[in-house]
Amino acid sequence: MSAQDSGTAERRRQFAEEARSERPDLALLCLLLGAEAGPVGPEEPRPVDPAEVSPDPYGIDAAQIELDRLAGLLPYGPGKTPADWASALAELLGERHEFGGSSADYQRLESSLLQQVLRRRRGLPILLSVVWIEVARRAGAPVYGVALPGHFVVGFGDPAHPVLVDPFAGGAPLTGEDADLLVTGATGAHLEPSMLTPARPLEIVLRILNNIRAWATARPERTDVALWAVDLSLLLPSHPARLRYERAQLLVQRGEFQRGAAEMEEYAEVLDTIEPTTAETIRHQAQAARALLN
């Protein structure tokens, strides 16, 4: 096993272990996820031998230090209200450090990688929200993520009556009407109280991985990214079973016909008692994949 493969295996072991811990560390999981894209730097991430670069090539330690540093810049003040916390975070992150996003950020893989978001100050709503959550949490704020359909935001205080902000818009406050408009724009339906339930760390991580898979799906040449996003998703304690089939398809697309066919057949066995017709269809696909070897 090469040094690079060994490093990947160790990071994935750590990711799986953290995901199954009693209180998963959201920042660490996002940083281990981000390391899959390669070393942090000004160039497009590319895999290299960690021994050839710095002691922290994937920026995991540096990112944790940056989150601590930002939290230390928040003015201390016991007795802050949720609105006070929201205002202080907006001033620090949105105004002074110019964290935010635009439509162009949806086209970049870096927008889903926490290390890169901290470096570029740009990202998708959910990654910018992770920055807010982690900085605010370190400072002692009552903060949590809110997974609105189509647009992730941050809440402070009582989830039944939250103070909502939009990190993608620099921390702009969201009224209940604003949140309802966001939901209506994404789904056509109105905001339901259940949508304001605080998102758990593993739900956030899976949503990030889903975004990365969607990014890669739109770029057929990036099956490498799609594959590691699926692999990490499968390491989470709870994930869609169909991801196993998606992984098998990716292997076939990448020319690994034998492995892909074998994984299709394993998935077909799982489906036998539930969806026998689908299982048979997948077996035929496995046979077709093996025929490509001839």
TrEMBL record:
It holds the Pfam family Transglut_core2. Residues 1-21 are annotated as: Disordered. Belongs to the UPF0162 family. It comes from Streptomyces stephensoniae. Residues 80-210 form the Protein SirB1 N-terminal domain. Residues 8-21 have a biased composition (Basic and acidic residues). This is Transglutaminase-like domain-containing protein.
